[in-house]
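Appendix B. One record, verbatim.
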Amino acid sequence: MVVQVLESMSREGFEEVIALHDRRSGARAFLAIHDTSVGPAFGGIRRFAYRDEKEGLLDCLRLALAMSYKCALTDIAGGGAKMVLFDRPYLDLPAAYRFLGESVAHLGGRYYAGPDVGTGWRELAWVGETTQHVTLPGPGGPGDLAGATCAGVFAGMRAALRAVFGAEDWPARTIVVQGLGSVGKLIAERLRDQGARVIAAEIDPERREAVRRELGIECVDAGGELDRECDVFCPCAMGGILHDLSVPRLRARVVCGSANNLLARTMHGDRLHERGILYAPDFVVNSGAVMRGAEFHLTGRPTPLAEVEARIGHTTTEILRMAAEEAVPTARIALREANRRIRLRRELGQAVSAAREATAASPPTDD
């Protein structure tokens, strides 16, 4: 395990990985900080029932790296991080999140925590009892983060439809939305309002039925959505769903959704490309929440949703354009561009640090 951690950190350029344990609450967690070369690291706290420590650690590393990609591609003056909390039956949730807040506070502003799977406003309020470096709801916070994610995914989907069909033409489109959580529901509602035919799948039958009645959309049982013929497959649940078994089943022209780390491996983006399915990279289109939250912490100004939509739409369009011109899978273009920007950021950060050290070492001069 230790060798794997160090190898992963070296290969991907991680700055720090911390293992956390609290005897009082039963909390077990990992925190991965990938990049702070131009500013603090941003990333949510994911609470999930991982099978074992290895699975949780690998998820933490992948998610933190994706956050750095998001920050680099959207010109946020910060980098990526992620915390994962192992969800267990006897976990004292309020105490566990307060403990995580204490751990965040010890970092002195290098990391800002936010929402993620299993961690909503209630949990973040507990974190906020022990640290100020956390995203909180209310008038003093960044505002609607789910709406920001929805805005970015919608912009990415629009860019992808234009690339494939020449226009979005919503009334002619069929969109399959997988997952009707806070973001998936918003996306389904917006697509419905644009006149698109929306088919949704949700693993929770009560939520599925409630959303079906509220929005008046068509719903299918979870598991069958991959086989539905559609213009866009929009995954809004957990990541890693595009793999050896699922990619051949897809009957969509475009994949564009809010879930993180959709590709089980980069090669699955190649498989989509080979099948003629345009993939709008998840860390490009789903970066609205980190854009809005990070810029609030950095400037005190939450990024307006219209600006989120415009910036992500522009970035997606450029990624798709480069991919088309070079005949290269979109996932590889997005990774190349994100890594290029991170490398430049780190070079800039090193230059600034060197200049500061030189200034501090210089002897004072007489007037």
